[in-house]
Specification:
The protein is α+β, with helices and mostly antiparallel strands. 42% of the residues lie in helices and 12% in strands. One of its GO terms (molecular function) is heme binding.
Length: 673
Amino acid sequence: MVPSIIKEALRLSSASLNIRVAKEAFQLRLENEKSYHIRKDDVIAFYPQMLHFDPEIYEDPLTFKYDRFLDENGQEKKSFYKDGRKLHYYFMPFGSGVTKCPGRFFAMYEIKQFLTLLLCYFEVELLDPNAEAPPLDQSRAGLGILQPAHDIDFRYRQPGEPPLMNGWIPYLGVALEYGRNPLEFLRSMQRKYGDIFTCKIAGSYFTFVLDPFSYGAVSRQGRNLDFQKFAIGFSHKVFGHADFNDPVYSYNIKDIHSIFRQTLQGPVLQQLISTMMENLQAVMRRDEGHGWTTEGLQVFVERIMFEAGYLTLFGKEEEAEAMATGGATPRWLFMRQAMEDFHAFDKAFPEMAAGLPIHLCGRAFRAREALAEKLHHRHLKRNKCLSALIERRMHAFDQMEQLDEKEKARTHVSMLWASQANTLPATFWSLYYILRCPVALDAAQAEVRRVLGESGHTPGNLEKPVVLSKDQLAGMSVLGSIIEEALRLSSASIMIRVASENFTLTLDTGKTAAIRKGDHIAMFPQMMHMDPEIYEDPTEFQCSRFLDENGQKKTDFYKNGRKLRQFLLPFGSGVSECPGRFFAINEIKQFLTLALCHYDMELHDLAAAPLETDCTRAGLGILPPKHDVSLRYRFRNCVTVKEKTAQNAYAASASKPALLAEASNESSVEEGN
């Protein structure tokens, strides 16, 4: 028995490297008859750990099994197989051949002796027998037996603390398992440990609270939990702006955050909505007269929403004035460059969020600096129609003598990212589900026609711009339900607080959990959004899920027979709730209203399987699609160039009535009408 235990421990911890050096060039013939030319002085290397962790040879190779090397008679087992063939070499912690350790017999005997005497003379037990084994120090890989990495931050669960998963990999902990699919990982942990447990992820400890009824209990711990320190510290590292937690600045993070509430909520929201509507229509009108066009749906949405959103917040410089003062970049080129830089920066965001310094993400760093250059105060002060939000922020930053111009500009990059990174995919999913679901499309079009009709607008009429008030948008309950359902299916935000002191968290059930200072409390609303007890068929899109029997907003959702106070949290909650959530919902409604008003649209393949979300961005907000889908569209009531030519010819010569029909037929074939 003892030799089997020792062998199993060696199998799990050995990482030796067997090396030979070619004395002459020769032909190496492998067991499978393949032949390879080896040069003189090349190094031939065997890495037995690959063998030791092969699941075909050793079942559950990561698991310690004390009797793995015993046969059914309790004797030493020597029969191990791969591909149906018995292995001659299956256990090689001491090397092989001429490099086989000559002291291997003595080593085995002294380990046996130590264990025998230890168990003979001592009573021994682990402090926490349920804790996971310590990770191995991989820096010694290739040198033999790996040592336990006790010097790396590794802790044991203390009495009263939630179940603890340290993981096997130093520093990373369970980050890889979590990152592959956070929702499935947390579900598996919930089945095993319940609604609260702690995981080591990338050097930090996260205590996940999965019971939605306990979210309020976390929010009430404001005295012991800090959000702003975590948020501004993260933003400081990624965006490179000043750390406004530092008392040296005349404006702190609370002062800056109050600007959001004063400019993105309440009565002042109407001006922002009106400006967004004007910009959306201006951008969309560029599609007038092009006939049927095929483009990626994601490209279509982002092309329009990014520019309109950018201009709404940061204003625009009149092109005629800009050209007169010395060759400014044309607006279309400026916006294309800005969007390319935004995407390059945003693409690296998951890596930066995981802790990778931005200077190691070269393209993202250059993109961030390019965006900052566009948002320098010297440029913004020339723009017209700046939003109150940006004007107030500029005024605040200009009062801080410690900030240089580049730091001021980087704060605006963070504002640009916050306004676009989640709005773009949320708008995409909303339009995607409308176009995929005939019921949703019919209901949305009917609501748009009704609201526009009440306002005196005619779909497709470009002579009279669409103007909708905040109250009219709020009354569009069908679009509201579609957007909320799209958010439910695609949001994967994580709400995080940092414990400022040791304290005891009392959950809704009355159960308590000891929380250590410096640990993170994490709530993952996607668990709630995909709970079949709360949402029937949670993976399916249902356009009326958030409508009651009267067609108004539904707020009654239940779990365990109890009504949930919080049932949809794509924007966070409490102190971390997005202050721009009202504007975000309204701008998506505006886009959908105008798109349904001015465009004929159809997806290329309605029979295709539903798009999947890209889980690599889990924890950052709205998940984008794994890939784009093809969209065919045209600006409604548009007239193509050929049709205009035909109409002009017809007007000039009424004796040639066939000309218009002939041109129209050509247009139908070539333009796809």
